[in-house]
What does this fold into?
Amino acid sequence: MDSKKRMMFILEEDYYFITIKLLAIFKALECYKKPFSDYRKLGLIFEFIKDDRNMKLFRKLIKQDELDIFENEKAVKLFCDSKMDVSIIKRVLFFLEKQEIVSLQKNIKSGNIDVMMLHNEKTEEIFMDDSIKKDVDAALELKKNIRGLKVLKIETLQTKILGYSEVTKWED
It folds into this structure.
């Protein structure tokens, strides 16, 4: 029975895994000071910080280095996966809001949902754990390379990372 469970387990759909990655993003972007604009961007950011290979691809994409055919396919897959991640991320955000770790706010101006990390004992306890440091560092690297990451529109973020042609090819 254990082998069946292991075969069916997908790390990227593990709520604990996703929660840790999201909290690392919120910490790196200082979302306890000002809210993260439009939770849908978290799918793309999550895809990059969840894996070292994805971070290597991010570095190539942001430098606008030439991609080989396999890297280009990986970029397209990453974009598609990021779109599918949004529904799972939304569920995790609702859970975190019930746990009083984040606050979800409707942004009247943009019509999006913004995320504010609450500063309390629960969040302090989470960030005492050293296992989250690697994820915070990866999110800090994204922040360093993309100005205004926290407030960019989702379309702008996709264009900055993936380039105009990739985004429009898959959005249409």
Notes: The longest strand covers residues 102-107. The chain has one domain: 2-171.
